[in-house]
Amino acid sequence: MNIEFSDPFASQKAIARNALYQVIDPELFVNVIDLGMIYDLDFNTEGHITVTMTLTTPHCPMGDAIQNGVRNAMEACFPDRQTEINLTFNPPWGMDKVTEEGRKQLGAY
Amino acid sequence: MAELNIGKAPPNSTILPFYATGAMVFWVLCLLLFLSADSLTTHFFNPHLLTIVHAAALGWGTMIIFGAAHQLLPVVCERDLFSPALGSLSWYSLFTGVLILAASFWNFRVGWIMISGGILVVISVIAFFINSAFTSRIFSQLSPARLFITTSAFWLGITVTIGLLLAINLSTPFFTRNHLEILKLHAHAGLAGWFLQLVTGISSKLVPMFLLAKETKDRWMYRAAWLQNAGLILFLTDGYFFGIHPDRILIYSILVAGGIACWLYFLYDAFRHRLRKRIDMQMRHTFTSFLFLLMAVVLIPVILFSGQSQWALLYGTFLFMGWITGIILGMTFKTLPFIVWNGHYKMLSGKVKVPLPKDLYQESLLIWQYRVYLIAILLLGAGILSAQAIIIRIAALLWMIVASLYGYNVLKILLHKTKIE
């Protein structure tokens, strides 16, 4: 997930991204940012954050826990905003979404 | 969208009793193996071996697989479990049915008590079949996993129905065919229909998921379904109407073996194209167990043409203790810790520091469990081939160690208390 410097919410997005580094997929032991599960963070609506994210598989048994983790992390950083999760499988998660660090942690090399 | 159905897990009260009972029965099964090591040096139709086999097939294998299947059905089918209440009914009736059957076989008391045990097992299977059929809704959306789950539940129904009829036949003979011939059909409906097809179906979904494999080749799974079912149907039909003839059985075995090869190729392809290169102990257990399945398949012509009973015993041992037990010993720790972890920490994740599912059990014991399992199965095989009760007894002692290590970890997970920092 890249953050543009010109984005008016760049600083909020950076804070959110840092918080999401702490949300771990309990099966893979890798955080959701390095796994490439977070597609977008939207701060445009006042009082809300919309996290567009995916799961490694549509029927991930840990899906609820991961979404709760994202919601909890966002609410801890931005207590004045309500978090909404927009779960999507379009585009589906793939290995191309995983960062170099994520690949290293998965033992892909 | 957030309300997209990703399949919600059924309540833990539906799932966990299966795991707790399965672990307990596994320990008892190994104790029985130790106490009646002699039963593995004679013909397979003896009361103690019948007890051990039914404890292994129903109380251990089917019990754990039912627990895992009730948990995984929503995952595989991407919809909620049809009825958790039916899941609980399935546990109650399977547990009491196995207890009654095991006691009846051990003392070889045929009659209404043994039959009632059989009826309870049939009730349990009907409940499971309804749950799997209505959860998978095979006719609305076909996938290899859904297909195999449905066919395996069907074959389990056939297996336990034949089993019940055999129990009735022991007290009130009515089969026109030889009881032992029907017993072979019953055993293979269970092995090639229930266990093989269920494991094939579930693994086709879980192995690529655990390994983070790229796209998978589903066409190999459909070939596997055709071959496994064609071989089994031909074997059962021919075996019942025309008797068991080695030449023809070999052809049907080749068909089933072809189905196994297609499935293993599918898994191999997923393995080759995986992102997750590190193979954990649970997956190692699973992959090793496939070797014992292959060894059992290789033994089929030997059994058919040698006529010596120890080969049949070795075949059954590789299937039950090498293959099915091997998978369960590994896969339990890919499912149970996550089920329990979800119950304790699902809502807390991201809020406070919580342990990982792997922290719920002792990983070092899993390594020892794997090592002792390998020695135990090989020693048991050697004991059966040499017909030496003392070797079988030493192997059974090792099996008791495996069961204790497994039971300790299962208990540790089940009794876990929420820990937050």
Walk me through this protein's architecture.
The complex is a heterodimer of chains A (109) and B (421). Chain A has helices at residues 10-20, 63-77, 100-106, and strands at residues 24-25, 30-31, 38-42, 48-53, 82-87. In chain A, helix 1 crosses helix 2 (63-77). By secondary structure, chain A is of the alpha+beta class. In chain A, strand 3 and strand 4 (48-53) form a beta hairpin. Chain A has a three-stranded mixed sheet, with helices on one face. Chain B has helices spanning 12-35, 47-77, 84-107, 112-136, 144-171, 179-211, 218-242, 246-272, 281-306, 309-345, 363-386, 389-414. Chain B is an all-alpha fold. The A-B interface holds A 22-24, 26-29, 55-73, 76, 84-89, 94-95, 98, 103, 106-109 and B 1-2, 4, 6-9, 71-72, 74-78, 205, 209-210, 212, 214, 275-278, 338, 341-342, 345-351, 356-357.
**CATH level 1 class label of chain A:** Alpha Beta
Query: Strand order, biggest sheet of chain A?
Result: 3-4-5
Largest interface: A-B, 41 and 35 residues
Task: Count up the domains of chain B.
Answer: 1
Mean pLDDT over the full residue set of chain B: 91
CATH topology grouping of chain A: GMP Synthetase, Chain A, domain 3
Largest β sheet strand count, sense and barrel closure of chain A: 3 strands, mixed
The whole-angstrom Rg of chain B is: 21 Å
> Could you please say which CATH topology of chain B applies here?
Cytochrome C Oxidase, Chain A
Report mean pLDDT of chain A, rounded to a whole number: 88
Label the structural class of chain A: alpha+beta
**What name goes with the CATH superfamily of chain B?**
Cytochrome c oxidase-like, subunit I domain
Number of helices of chain A: 3
CATH H-tier superfamily of chain A: Fe-S cluster assembly (FSCA)
In whole angstroms, how far apart are the ends of chain B? 33 Å
Report the order of strands and helices of chain B. Answer: HHHHHHHHHHHH
